[in-house]
Design goal:
This protein is of the alpha+beta class and 418 residues long. 39% of the residues lie in helices and 21% in strands. It folds into two domains: 246 residues, BirA Bifunctional Protein, domain 2; 92 residues, Rossmann fold, CATH 3.40.50. The chain contains 16 helices and 16 strands. The strands form three sheets. The chain has an eight-stranded mixed β-sheet with strand order 1-5-6-11-10-9-7-8. The chain has a five-stranded mixed β-sheet with strand order 13-12-14-15-16, sandwiched between helices. Strands 2-4-3 form a three-stranded antiparallel β-sheet. β15 and β16 form a beta hairpin. The model has no long low-confidence stretch (mean pLDDT 95). Bound molecules: histidyl-adenosine monophosphate (HAM).
Length: 418
């Protein structure tokens, strides 16, 4: 029996890969415009890194990590997300010594042992960005306007931005205590996971999708009413700057992130078009993470988008490249000229195709159509004798006579394709 891929691990076939390249190129262009530079870190890290950053009591660390012992008896983990590894590299290479304000972006595969469904996979891909060293809410607003611009540039109306503040180590304990008091009387309504998390992570009940939990938490105290003065002012300014920049957003005080490192601003780009996998991108501030990992006391903020989810939102839009020219030949005698022209044009940067197998003219033209070539030309004995041929624009059938030399065709195509 033929072998198949591992469950939850997908092949990205050429048409889909063209959509992915469009997403990646747009992200690179927008992020670099905002001063972000690319960083590439390994897909595997010491397990301890994720326990210390994401948090031992999170779903990711508790049940979703691909962790194993390597041949040297070290516990290693395929990265479930990008922030921890990027911050590990930021600290390890002392990037902060050159400039505490680092702007880094990354893209690549992440791994979580989740139950696969549409928009949720075990190997998935993120494009993320991290900004360190700035406490000012201007940084939050800039990261959010950059993310919003990315979605505009990629041509998506969806998703919409939701923001929240989770407070800081000064004010969150009091909120957690208030929430626990509220939940204590409703423990019977909560799902098994939320019951279990009541002690370690009661906030998770707020965004649990199980109906009983939604009902139980419908009148729960809001985190925003428990922010300390510093966090409250910070959140107010983030909103102010978003408004100044004309960025649409909605406050969602029930948004709780599934990673422990967040402080203050958190956000998600949410869509209604992908069923329960509604977050297309997500992130927030992590002001304690860098020092927690042994680095200097520098704040950070960032996000990551799920490439598969962005690609699903783009739908069946075609981003694949099509040939500029298809060269058809009448007989064996013209194939040498056709090959020389094709070779010269390819070296000149044009996308050119011809028939490989000496097929009938009709079947060659069918192939030109199938490949969606912009222009086609048929070269036969007459064309060779005349030294020129008529180039047909496939969209409307209009023709132009062009000499059969590489340079003349180059000049023609450059003008015609502009
Ligand atoms: P996250 O919310 O865990 O955050 O993931 C970010 C995005 O990755 C999600 O919104 C979703 O689009 C995508 N994603 C997550 N899991 C899957 C999956 N199993 N299949 C497909 N897509 C998925 C983080 O990872 C943080 N590191 C984001 C961040 C950066 N926070 C600060 N800086």
């Amino acid at each position: 029996m033929a072998l198949t891929a591992v469950k939850g691990f997908n092949d990205i076939l050429p048409d889909e890969a063209a959509r992915w390249r469009h997403i990646e190129q747009t992200a690179r262009r927008v992020f670099e415009q905002y001063g972000f530079g690319e960083i590439r870190v390994p897909v595997m890290e010491k397990t301890e890194l994720f326990c210390r950053s994401i948090g031992d009591a999170t779903d990711i660390v508790e049940k979703e990590m691909y962790t194993f012992v390597d041949k040297g008896e070290n516990s290693v983990t395929l990265r479930p997300e990008g922030t921890a590894g990027v911050m590990r590299a930021f600290i390890e290479h002392k990037l902060y010594a050159q400039d505490p304000v680092a702007r880094l972006y990354y893209m690549g595969p992440m791994f979580r042992y989740e139950r696969p469904q549409k928009g949720r996979y075990r190997q998935f891909h993120q494009i993320g960005a991290e900004l360190t060293g700035v406490t000012d809410p201007l940084a939050d607003a800039q990261v959010l306007t950059m993310l919003t611009l990315f979605f505009r540039e990629i041509g998506l109306q969806e998703p919409t931005l939701q923001i929240n503040s989770l407070g800081c180590p000064d004010c969150r304990p009091a909120y957690r205590a208030a929430l626990r008091v509220y939940l204590e009387e409703r423990l019977g309504l909560l799902c098994e996971d939320c019951k279990r998390r009541y002690d370690t992570n009661p906030l998770r009940a707020l965004d649990c999708k199980v109906p009983g939990c939604a009902e139980a938490t419908s009148a729960a105290p809001s985190v925003l009413e428990h922010l300390c003065t510093g966090c409250d002012e910070h959140f107010g300014l983030v909103r102010h700057y978003l408004e100044l920049s004309g960025t649409d957003y909605r406050i969602n005080s029930r948004m709780v992130r599934g990673l422990d490192y967040y402080t203050r601003t958190t956000f998600e780009m949410v869509t209604g078009l992908l069923g329960s996998q509604s977050a297309v991108a997500a992130g927030g501030r992590y002001d304690g993470l860098i020092s927690q990992l042994g680095g200097p006391a520098l704040p950070g903020i960032g996000f990551a988008m799920g490439v598969e989810r962005v690609a699903l939102l783009l739908g069946s839009q075609d981003f694949s490249t099509t040939p500029d020219l298809f060269i058809a030949t009448m007989g064996q005698g013209e194939r040498e000229l056709a090959f020389t022209l094709m070779d010269g044009l390819l070296k000149g940067g044009f996308r050119v195709e011809m028939d490989y197998e000496g097929k009938s003219l009709k079947s060659q033209m069918r192939r030109a159509d199938k490949l969606k070539a912009n222009y086609s030309v048929v070269i036969g004995g007459n064309e060779v004798a005349a030294g020129s041929a008529s180039f047909k624009r496939m969209a409307d059938g209009s023709t132009t006579g062009v000499p059969l030399t590489v340079s003349a065709i180059q000049t023609f195509l450059s003008g015609a394709l502009r």
